[in-house]
Amino acid sequence: MAVFPEVPGYELKKFLGSGGAADVFLALDHRHSRLAAVKVLARRRFAETVAVRRFIKEARTISSLHHPNIVRIYETGRTPELRFMAMEFFPESLKRRLQERGRLVPDEALTIANQVATALFYAHARGFVHRDVKPDNIMFRADGTPVLLDFGIARVLESTTQLTRSGMAMGTPRYMSPEQLNAKRADGRSDIYSLGVVLYEMLSGAPPFKGSQTMTVIMKHVTEPVPRLADDLAAFQPLLDRMMAKERGKRPATEKEWQELIKPLFRPFKLPKADKPKFGDLAKADDREKTRQGGGSPAPKPAPKPQPRRRKMNPRRFFLLNLLLVIVLAAWIFFNYERIPGMMASLARAIASWISSLLARI
Q: What is the pTM for the complete model shown?
């Protein structure tokens, strides 16, 4: 069994991956009875000044951004052996959703892009550029809300602090803007280009530029026009052309510009809920991995039998039916009134005979 580092207040249960110089673990927060993602920078990295500064900067950046579509940090801390940052844990990523479904419904894709865009414009207005927008960094809360995370290489627009070497591009080439790939200074419009690449992938099921070599992908981003979408998605092409324009000046730079672009296309979509992990249910928390006992998925619970619904009669219909009965009864009496006394006498005799037979048996 792997030996995980000791983080005060958290019980580390599973290694989730690495983010830059830090490792990320799934943990149980016993104080608040919840799952958390704990990012740990071990002591062996303390001598790497840039790694430490990036870690601290990411924590400060996220802590200063309060937006419903940006990850929340629970706390930060340090011990003699490590620095740590505890934040929300998410049951599903956009990357996994795309892997499972291929592509998304257009309204769903645009709804996700819109919410991520509002988070980006919020961060840009406060001087932060994300610089690594991609499906891996877009997660979903249990209620389906998309959330932007991993500000590990975020940059303060007005800062003169250099955490990277001059001319060094930061990000993921498949989703990076031409200016980032040319090692030029990124700004908020660079994030919008990356979001355009993500939106293209959500709509079509594949990124716009592909290649067996990284350099091939880079050259396509820098030189080739945005690929055409299928005919049934052609309405989204003007939006993508603006978002992924080679010249950053042609991309939407403010939320107002963005809303004007999507208004003709946008229809609010109720996002599907992600699987909500239960406290301590690590099989489900770890992206629905197979249970250990049987090696297979748990048996689904039988669906409850539908209960018959009682139909309430319309008051107007009820009144008309009763009126019809009254009319029929009145018509019968009108046409048979001479026979009624004889019928009543016959009925009385039948009842008297029935009562007499009962008394005779007693």
A: 0.70
